[in-house]
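sry for the spam today, last one i promise. struct tokens for design, 395 residues
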């Protein structure tokens, strides 16, 4: 951490490939204030917290692009939020013919397109709308950029710039800090939940191994820091906390990326003897609570593999019916995370993933890696199948 309170800058940071030319402009931001629920889900606590997640999502994008390893989130004493990262910093140069800085364009214009916040092969958040939505729904917002050898600042009120982007003192740091106060005239509540924010930030640390995420509350002082190099295995360990109940240890974990580098998959899973089963799925670090193609691919491969293993090892006879999908997942705690260059979601809050290629690739990866694990861990595999058979309803 630097003396200014910003995360330390990782070595070998490159800023040249991320410029104002990457940002595509389609329309202004007034629609956001007229219909906030379309952009952040609600005007209640859920929407209030979604504002934080949108700013954090930009910082996570910087991490996934290889340019940041720390994010610091603070609930400020006045009830606002400050998010600082040690990435490259938002682009500050002006673009012709408007002469508007790239920072201002990102914070005031809806940038829908195939590559939001571009420079990124994978991006989370609202797909080019997130920072603009946060700005439009805030009574005030301040952005600080550390880039190109200087610190730059700009202030906004209700989405409108009230100062120009101003170059300040020299600095060798890189990164972006955004501080905002949600508009009390829009939101039904202005109080952030430390517990809810901490839960989501820890989730992001699990999903992005190597990323350190801290949360500080200045209302009382309650700092926490989440850092999970073991990634999804650590996530499963948290979800599945009773070692004596585990049918195998450690959790099964694997990851893969396709040849074109447009889809990557991470999976961690562990069976136990006590729970009915729990599956958490994510796309670009966003929780897909309604599932989608990636969950379907996982479930299809899992059901087929367990049935195949049971038949190959004489645990099911030729006359037995297949074990149903629900029984296969009995006692299974699993996390499936996909990161895609071109995600397609249903709904404004991105709760269901539609990409068929994601389902196909997840199914392929699970078949390859889980088959290998089952074949090399026969004792544990047989214990798992016996647990599943006991959970299979009689037919």
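last one done:
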């Amino acid at each position: 951490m630097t003396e200014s309170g910003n995360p330390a800058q990782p070595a070998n940071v490159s800023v040249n490939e991320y410029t104002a030319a990457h940002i595509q402009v389609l329309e202004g931001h007034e629609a956001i204030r007229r219909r906030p629920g379309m952009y952040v889900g609600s005007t209640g606590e859920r929407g209030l917290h979604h504002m934080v997640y949108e700013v954090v999502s930009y910082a996570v994008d910087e991490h996934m692009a290889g340019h940041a390893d720390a994010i610091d989130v603070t609930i400020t004493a006045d009830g606002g939020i400050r998010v600082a990262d040690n990435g490259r910093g938002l682009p500050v140069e002006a673009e012709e013919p408007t002469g508007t800085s790239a920072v201002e364009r990102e914070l005031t214009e809806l940038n829908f397109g195939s590559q939001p916040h571009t420079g990124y092969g994978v991006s989370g958040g609202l797909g080019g709308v997130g920072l603009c939505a946060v700005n439009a729904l805030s009574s005030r917002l301040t952005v600080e950029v550390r880039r190109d050898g200087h610190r730059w600042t700009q202030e906004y009120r209700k989405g409108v710039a009230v100062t120009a982007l101003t170059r300040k003192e020299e600095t060798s740091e890189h990164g972006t800090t955004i501080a905002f106060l949600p508009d009390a005239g829009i939101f039904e509540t202005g109080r952030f939940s430390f517990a809810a924010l901490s839960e989501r930030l820890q989730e992001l640390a699990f999903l992005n191994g190597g990323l350190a995420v801290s949360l500080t509350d200045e209302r009382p002082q309650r700092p926490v820091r989440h850092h999970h190099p073991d990634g999804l295995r650590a996530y499963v360990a948290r979800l599945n906390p009773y070692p004596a109940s585990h049918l195998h240890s450690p959790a099964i974990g694997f990851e893969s990326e396709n040849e074109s580098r447009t889809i990557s998959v991470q999976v961690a899973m562990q069976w136990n003897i006590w729970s009915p089963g729990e599956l958490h799925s994510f796309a670009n670090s966003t929780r897909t609570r309604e599932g989608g193609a990636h969950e379907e691919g996982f479930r299809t491969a899992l059901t087929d593999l367990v049935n195949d293993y049971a038949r190959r090892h004489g645990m099911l006879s030729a006359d037995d019916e297949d074990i149903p999908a629900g029984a296969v997942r009995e006692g299974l705690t699993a996390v499936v995370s996909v990161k895609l260059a071109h995600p397609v979601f249903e709904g404004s809050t991105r709760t269901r993933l539609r990409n068929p290629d994601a389902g196909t690739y997840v199914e392929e990866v699970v078949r390859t890696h889980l088959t290998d694990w089952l074949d090399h861990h026969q004792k544990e595999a047989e214990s798992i199948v016996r647990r599943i058979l006991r959970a299979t309803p009689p037919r």
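The CA atoms of residues 20 and 390 lie 59 Å apart. ok im logging off now
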